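User: Could you check the structure of this?
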Amino acid sequence: MILLALLAQSVTTLSLDFSKPGVAVSPTLYGLMTEEINHSYDGGLYGEQVRNRSFKDHREQAPHWRAVGEGASIALEPTGGINAAMPACLKVKGGAANEGYWGFRIQPGTRYKLSVWAKADRAGSIEASLESADGSKVYTKTTLTGVGSGWSKLEGTLETSRSVPATTDGRLVLKTGADRTTWLGMVSLFGPTFNNRPNGNRPDLMQLLADMKPKFLRFPGGNYLEGSTFKDRFNWKKTLGPIETRPGHQAPWGYRSTDGMGLLEFLEWAEDMGSEPVLGVFAGYVLNGDVIEAGTELSGFVQDALDQIEYITGGPKTKWGAQRVKDGHPKPFPLRYVEVGNEDAFDVSGSYEGRFVQFYDAIKKKYPKIKVISTTGGKDWLGRRFPITARKPDLLDEHYYSSTWEMMAMATQYDAYDRKGPKIFVGEWAAQDVPEPWKDAAKKGPTPNLKCALADAAFMTGMERNSDVVEMACYAPLLVNVNPGGRQWAVNLIGYDALSSFGSPSYYAQKMMMERVGDRTVPVSLSGAPTQSEGGRTLPGIFTSATRDTKSGKVYVKIVNALPTAQEIQFEVKGAKVASSGSITFLSGQLPDVNSIEEPFKVAPKQEAVTGLSGSFRRTVPGYSVSVLELRVNE
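Assistant: Sure, the predicted structure tokens are below.
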């Protein structure tokens, strides 16, 4: 039980000292990290609605498909598909229905793009419809013509009327006719996508992400980069081109990835948010412990990484730059950061330093301006296992999945970091209220409560104060399908089902802090602040940081009150004149409070105007709250 001391006996003084220069805030301080977990892509952000669209989820059966109609039947045929990447097909008599990812995203007045690869023993057509799961309601239907004896791609549009209700109660039905046998090779259905991207992303989820104003996107992972085996790594070259040529692979979190979210889609995702890519390259280690040590055999993977960088940044006359142009993106993407591997301290052989050196030297030789990130050598428990000494990485990646108490305790850890060492990339972090989130995914969560949000925000104040050391930071995991079968981790930033989505309290706390950050820190100190205690340990009850925008004169003061009672704060400003009016944005509630599909804004920010400001003023912040006070100053 947490014991609270000095709750209301004194007023806390928060001093802002503009007579001292502070430090430059990293322009890439806050971003996003992503990987395929919790159906983040398939059944999540990626706009595809058909589940098991290429009939590769099982070798003998066709999960998520069933026969529809009297006397109808379906059977999986493992060979005879449309091409080598899609060898399987579904043999259909009468009709077949797909259940989607825990339903379909049915919305009123919406146009859906349907494509079906099909052939039949007799020429004919396919009637396609979106229906309720039990078939009692037909929301929209169309007819695809031109089914012949050879494989062909049929395309059509399904459009719902404005009277159709928004619902997840849906299925896609393909009626092929009882008088012939039809084979389906791939079936795809997309609703509207963000920025109308072909093969694009779900608009509501993209908007939640873009609203955070992330400076970068770290991709493709995470465990998803490595894979459980070498054949299941993220093989980026197999994720290019039309979706029917992408074979997909087994993802490490218990389900198959279509690779519809391929390298180009990751890059366009970052582009659509105004973010820069942070590229993770496969470095020879996979999750089952197999590793290719430094040397000749590893050189092929090093070249693969160089090819990947060329695809992203190369001009149209380079081999892989030309491939990007062919894939539909003539302009090169920016790329300043490349991370070699992921959590390579799990490689007990200790081979990472040699592997890192081989990648580092090759990347720096061809792309000297790229900053190369090491996954070991930091002060997190993984990083300490294998220091990097043969080369000096540009950044060290540290990962922290900690209890709420430990996360608040880490708010000061970067205060004492060596300013002459490599910069820090906090590539994965989250406060968690469960000890083993990978085991408790079905029982807890699926998103953090307010208690976690307070700890997350407290940790962010420490990174912000020390952004001369912390160059980048991103929370993980980012996304979760909240259906019980859809999640593999208990604490995730943004939740959704087939229709709706919501940000967690941690999402809103981070959004508040990410969209209100200046370009220099303001030295800030607290005196007379209350404390909190647990198990004989004592921590501050209030956490703070401040930054200023040197061009606009705006100042952002972040205040995290981890205590249950409101706190009166005396603000003292030195070295600058404060405008008389400003604003405060805050979120508060009770520690167990969570957001959900049913209550998406139970914990959400509120904004108020603030008047009567000067060089010395008072303001009360609510109990259990995250607040951002926005001031304007003249120095």
